[in-house]
Amino acid sequence: MILGVLGARNAISKQIMQDEILIPILDDLKTKPTKLLLPAEPLSSTYIECWASRQDIPVELIKSDWATDGRKAGVIRDYRIEKESTALLIFEGPKSRYYLDLAERITKKNAFRSYPVYIVNANSVSPVLLEVDQVQQYSVSEKDEKDILTLPKLWSKNTQKCLILDD
Q1: Distance CA 92, CA 137 (A)
Q2: Which of 46, 49, 108, 167 lies at a 20 to 30 A Cα distance from 57?
Q3: Cβ(87)–Cβ(117) under 8 Å?
Q4: Sequence spans of domains, the chain
């Protein structure tokens, strides 16, 4: 399992990052990640990398290529982390809903496979597993529809009781 991290939470301590966020996620996943994918820029990635090295979990830091990609560099980096991961930890930004909306889109897109997405809200340090209401799509054949929508026995002569009365 590869755990990817999107967003950052630089205003919290290394201890809170480990005790309140990373350890509960690993307890919930029940398996140790084989690798962590982190954005290279934020301080919180350094905290996670330090923790992962003590846990003997390899870390790959993904850099944004601002010179080549310009303003899209962060989005391209995040997309790469999303595609290579089998589970995600996403930090909501303090001023923007971008990462929260991204987490919801990823969860909906991967609703039919096991792809856990944990979000840490801007005003909290507790990770929450996002879940989407599973919508099942049904298809009804013409024959089934006919059986459902018509009551042929209603007007047959063999019926003991008539369900519809004429006025």
Answers
A1: 32
A2: 108
A3: yes
A4: 2-129
Residue whose entry in the numeric block shows the structure tokens 């996620």: 25
The pTM of this model reads 0.73
36-82 pLDDT, tens digit each: 999 998 888 999 999 999 999 999 999 999 999 999 999 999 999 99
Indicate the class that CATH gives domain 2-129: alpha beta
Query: Six-digit token pair at 22?
Result: 């990373």
**Could you tell me how far CA 43 lies from the centroid of its own chain?**
23
Residue 92 CB burial class (10 angstroms; 0-12, 13-18, ≥19): buried
Q: Which pLDDT tens digit goes with each residue over 95-153?
A: 888 888 888 888 888 776 778 999 998 888 888 888 766 555 556 677 766 665 665 54
